[in-house]
Amino acid sequence: MELINKTAIVTGAAGGIGQAIIAKLREQGAKVLAVDISEQSLQMYTSFDSKQLGTFVADVTDYQQVEAMVKCAVEQFGSLDIMVNNAGIGAPKPLLD
């Protein structure tokens, strides 16, 4: 699959699954807007080329922030072709607790 000239938003970008999704999308040539609720967690992406990967802080439960996120992707990369809703919450504890 080749994704050259495609733009993706990936929410939950700071978690392990989000990082793997972003890596695969970039490997296939997509431009990516990495979105997470934690600005500090998005710091891992600051060394990437901003023409290929941007970051955006948003709470995806807030409609206005989601609208702003989409607007950011379109303004930064020219379009939005792929949306990966990977954001979620969970308590880090053993499965059987």
TrEMBL record:
Pfam short name (any one): adh_short
InterPro entries: NAD(P)-bd_dom_sf (IPR036291), SDR_fam (IPR002347)
Protein name: SDR family NAD(P)-dependent oxidoreductase
